[in-house]
Design brief:
By secondary structure, the chain is α/β, with parallel strands linked by helices. The protein is built from 13 helices and 10 strands. The structure holds Fe4 H S5 (Q46) and zinc ion.
């Protein structure tokens, strides 16, 4: 629509679409009523056109970063949330061979009821629907305690020991069961917040390891993040439109996490200038490609569990020992916050 008498100037077609009420937007491919408008892509899509577009973008990311192929067996770390269950679903829709892994953290919800148990039920429901295997690692059964006990023992925000514990079991299961890749549901908001946090601290070690693909190494599974360019809103809409039920409540330990503050800052920038978030991550990744890859730290098998570790006893085993010591009244061991596979020290980075 051109501006003219009685028609306010909108400054061009694009601006008119952005400013118009949602009901005025039309799906670009078919002209139907759009359910999402993505100004960073200059694209609006209806409920029928969105899922195929989303899956095509997922496939593009998989190919662009050479994540895995159709004959590979992929293990998807699932938490019961929109990102991980949406990822599992998208991979199956695309024809990949993918099973799920749920780590039962034994976290209680803010209502005092079993948050982790409720999350597990969503993961189980999807496994039943898809007919794929769901591997469950229950911390209570394997270690004798869950994340709340570990957190009380080490006196640190829960996300730090939780991250170490999840990384340990995700890697262990993927390696022991011979999967070709371990996929996590990290989305653009997670990745941008991590990058922001690592950049604020100029943490070169973590920056060097922030990538959509971490190649396999001795004792380490290949790790991939096929959703790293989708926003939270985009992954949630995909799950909803595809009829994949997911847990809506947040982990109670996520409240007040620094990552949420960082996400808020980045979302304000995104609101002012659509595309900022994606450009922040994409430009970082291409700049990193031009730098020489850092030498990986020297690893040896952990004395306790045999997992690769840069020190004699790995971070996970130190956590476990500290929790056991607390339970038996012994002095606590100092537990390091960093892990060689971590991507940030402060926030919920080990999304499942
Ligand atoms: S589960 Fe664990 Fe997250 Fe909960 S305690 Fe933190 S790291 S917020 S993805
Ligand atoms: Zn160990």
């Amino acid at each position: 629509m051109k501006c003219g008498p009685g028609r306010p100037c909108t400054g061009g077609r694009g601006r008119a679409e952005e400013g118009a009420p949602k009901s005025y937007r039309r799906c670009k491919p078919c002209g139907g009523k759009a359910v999402i408008h993505m100004p960073q892509h200059r694209l609006a899509l209806c409920r029928a056109c969105y899922p195929p577009w989303f899956e095509k973008q997922t496939q593009r990311t998989i190919e662009r970063f050479h994540m895995f192929g159709k004959t590979d067996r992929i293990l998807v770390a699932v938490s019961g949330g929109k990102d991980s269950l949406g990822l599992w679903h998208a991979l199956l829709q695309l024809g990949y061979v993918a099973d799920g892994l749920y780590i039962h953290l034994r976290i209680q919800g803010s209502d005092g009821l079993a948050y982790s148990q409720r999350s597990l039920e969503f993961a189980r429901a999807y496994a039943d629907r898809s007919g794929r295997e769901l591997i469950v690692v229950d911390l209570q059964e394997t270690m004798g305690f869950g994340i709340p006990e570990i957190q009380r023992a080490v006196h640190r925000p829960a996300c730090s020991p939780c991250g170490t514990t999840k990384r340990h079991y995700m890697n262990k299961v993927a390696v022991e069961r011979g999967y070709d890749g371990l996929a996590t549901g990290h989305n653009l908001d997670d990745e941008a917040a991590t990058l922001f946090s690592n950049t604020l601290r100029w943490d070169m070690d973590y920056l060097a390891r922030q990538t959509p693909v971490l190649p396999a190494a001795e004792g380490f599974a290949r790790k991939v993040k096929p959703f790293c360019f989708f926003s939270e809103k985009e992954t949630a809409l995909y799950a909803v439109l595809e009829g994949v039920p997911y847990i809506r409540e947040e982990c109670p330990f996520a409240l007040g996490a620094t990552s949420l503050e960082h996400k808020d800052v980045i979302n304000r920038l995104e609101h002012e200038s659509p595309g900022t978030k994606r450009a922040f991550l994409a430009n970082f990744l291409s700049a990193k490609d031009r730098l020489p890859a850092p030498a990986p730290p020297a690893m040896k098998p952990c004395r306790e569990c045999g997992s690769p570790s840069p020190v004699e006893v790995c971070a996970f085993c130190r956590l476990r020992a500290a929790t056991l010591a607390r339970g038996s009244g012994l002095a606590l061991t100092q537990v390091g916050a960093r892990s060689v596979e971590g991507q940030g020290a402060v926030v919920c980075q080990v999304k499942t």
